[in-house]
Amino acid sequence: MSKQPKGSGEIPAETVRVARAAFPKGSLAIRVRDELGSLFTDEEFADLFPVRGRPSGGRSSSGFRPPARELSWLEMVTETLRSALNALAQAAPDWLARVAEPDWFRHYATRAEDSRFPKARARRDEVGLRVGRDGMRLLEAVFAADAPPGLSTLAEVETLRQIWVQHFHLVEGEVRRRDPKDRPPGTLRLVTPYDTEARGSVKRDTLWDGYKVHLTETCEPDAPNLITNVATTVATVHDSVAVADIHGSRWPHGTACPPSTGSMPDTPPPARS
Fold first, then answer.
1. Does residue 118 share a domain with residue 95?
2. pLDDT, position 263
3. Residue 190 lies inside a defined structural domain of this protein
4. Is there a domain that residue 88 lies in?
5. Is the sign of the CA dihedral 109, 115, 119, 121 positive or negative?
6. pLDDT block averages, 10 residues each, the chain of length 273
7. How many domains are there within the chain?
8. Which residue in 39, 70, 77, 237 has the fewest CB atoms around it within 10 Å?
9. pLDDT of res. 11
């Protein structure tokens, strides 16, 4: 089935009448709706549906970037820059105070996940380009000849450099976001500044960043199924590759049937700082 958009979100008159009768003094939900209007739109949740069941309307799917995925990308690049700034603040605080732009503290003092990014796509694009320019400016300062020695070798700075190479480039002197086709494959693309081994992957309708866990269980006909092996791989390792390796090294010869191995996403918790 396919979920269809419901228009402007206007509440039917009969629904309003019933709500007022049931809650003559009002309720928190009613007050929020009356004061703020519609908080969400169907398009904001499109990425949560399988491709065949996503909300559809008059907009063409070409060039549409789901807001949920956009926010995830914005959080990733913003947190990458924040992580590098924190590391530089510890390694060379006086130098950073000289090269930092006046508004960097306001933009990057708190974790990206606690930030309120714009809902409108155009505004999100502006924020993404601003983060890209700020990161490029910081990298130029770090790799300048007069920068303190050792800053460019900090792990957080190297992660910033790699992620900026993967997601931004210069076009006629201006920082621009790379098109998806111009980015490296998933096996090389970093997805978080706090775990450079984690990768993004997709299995059926599930997209995640992190790793993949492979669980192996017995399948003896007259005995309970028991988990006999747990293996963790990077998220981009195909199931067939992992299963062949697991069964080849773990399956004892002579068992009545080969064990059954399945996989599931494994997303590491975010680092706190």
1. yes
2. 60
3. no
4. yes
5. positive
6. 53 74 72 63 57 44 48 91 97 97 93 85 93 98 96 97 97 94 91 91 80 81 82 81 68 50 58 51
7. 3
8. 39
9. 74
pLDDT reported for residue 210:
83
Whether this model's pTM surpasses 0.70: no
Q: Are residues 84 and 176 in the same domain?
A: yes
Helix (H) or strand (E) holding 211: strand 206-217
- Contact by Cβ (8 Å): 243, 259: no
DSSP the chain: ------TT-PPPHHHHHHHHHH-TT--HHHHHHHHH-----GGGGGGGS-GGGS---SS-STT---HHHHHHHHHHHHHHHHHHHHHHHHH-HHHHHHHS-TTHHHHHSS-GGGS---SSHHHHHHHHHHHHHHHHHHHHHHTSTTSPTTGGGSHHHHHHHHHHHHHEEEETTEEEEPPGGGSPPTTT----TT-TT-EEEEETTEEEEEEEEEEEE---TTS---EEEEEEEETTS-HHHHHHHHHHHH--TT-SS--EEEEEEEPPPPP--
Domain identity same for 173 and 218: no
Asked if residues 142 and 152 have their Cβ atoms less than 8 Å apart, the reply is: yes
- What is residue 169's predicted lDDT score, i.e. its pLDDT? 96
Closest residue by Cα to residue 212 from 200, 204, 227: 200
* 43 and 77 share one domain: no
Q: Are 206 and 253 members of one domain?
A: yes
Question: CA of 122: how far to CAs of 8, 59, 125, 129, in Å?
Answer: 20, 16, 5, 11
Which residue range forms the structural domain that includes residue 43? 13-53
Q: Are the C-beta atoms of 164 and 135 separated by less than 8 Å?
A: yes
